[in-house]
Q: What sequence folds into this?
């Protein structure tokens, strides 16, 4: 069965996007959040802030209630 990426229900700070990405790739979500925050700060909001908003529209909420 093919694994899909979802927004996390449990590991969420804002919308669960980075938590879901971390679950999908088996990464540490706190490290991913720190790296993403640094990317937003050092590149300005435009590339990574807009990417986050786009992912919010594209990645569905997890159907699993863990």
A:
């Amino acid at each position: 069965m093919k694994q899909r990426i979802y927004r996390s229900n449990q590991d969420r700070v804002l919308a669960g996007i980075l938590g879901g990405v971390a679950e999908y790739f088996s990464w540490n979500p706190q490290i991913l959040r720190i790296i993403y925050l640094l990317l937003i700060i050092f590149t300005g909001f435009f590339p990574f802030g807009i990417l986050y908003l786009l992912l919010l529209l594209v990645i569905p909420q997890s159907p699993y209630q863990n």
